[in-house]
Design brief:
Elements (H helix, E strand, L loop, with lengths): L3 H14 L8 H15 L7 E7 L3 E7 L6 E6 L13 H11 L2 E5 L11 H14 L4 E7 L1 H15 L7 E5 L10 H5 L11
Parallel strand pairs: 3-4, 3-5, 5-6
Antiparallel strand pairs: 1-2, 2-4
Helix pairs in contact: 4-5
Length: 197
């Protein structure tokens, strides 16, 4: 049985999907990112110290006061590989950090139209390597496109016999880009992210 919140999310998703028949232009993507940052971003709370990292790995590094030592969360935002932003997903990331009681790094990976595959994957790998040098345990969380990047990161590490994340969690991953999985059709009423595909 779906909660009232889930039913409302599905209703909103259906209304959005009907407006998404046309492909986005680069200008529209930039507008959507800026809009997300302005309308969804939250300030850095008092219990978190933030450092902007712009090295091989890029993103926002969050240090939780009194957090578990030697454990960090690699947070990978979604946004269809084009419209998501680190700032617009701060609230979700901060909630996870408080539940996990650890530091976090929200990776600012390259997206379309500025970059093409495999740029995002390379950026996520760079962020993981950056954290693995500094922390004993790296946890990985991704949502939507970020969930797919979390899965491909883990598979790449495994194929190279490298140290895997301590834990990995994915929320509504985009498993394939061609929409041929039976569950994408059979379960679409239960997952707002799939509606209209």
């Amino acid at each position: 049985m779906l909660s009232n919140e889930a039913k409302e999310a599905i209703k909103i998703a259906k209304s959005i999907k009907t407006q998404q028949s046309d492909k986005l232009t680069p200008d529209q993507v930039c507008f959507l990112r800026n809009d997300a940052n302005q309308n969804n971003s939250v300030s850095i709370p008092d219990d978190i110290k933030m450092d902007e990292i712009n090295e091989n790995a890029k993103g926002e590094f969050y240090h939780l006061k009194n957090g578990i030592d030697r454990t960090v969360l690699l947070f990978i935002h979604g946004g269809a590989y084009m419209t998501g932003t680190v700032k617009s997903r701060r609230k979700l990331c901060f909630n996870l950090l408080r539940r996990l009681n650890c530091d976090g790094f929200s990776v600012d990976y390259r997206q379309w139209p500025e970059a093409k595959h495999p740029a995002a994957q390379e950026d996520v790998m760079a962020a993981y390597q950056y954290l693995a040098k500094r922390y004993k345990r790296v946890l990985v969380f991704g949502e939507s496109a970020g969930a797919t990047l979390a899965l491909t990161l883990t598979l790449e590490l495994k194929s190279e016999s490298r140290k895997l994340p301590a834990k990995i969690a994915v929320f509504s991953p985009v498993i394939t880009q061609i929409n041929t999985m039976p569950s994408e059709f059979l379960m679409q009423e239960r997952d707002p992210m799939l509606l209209g595909w």
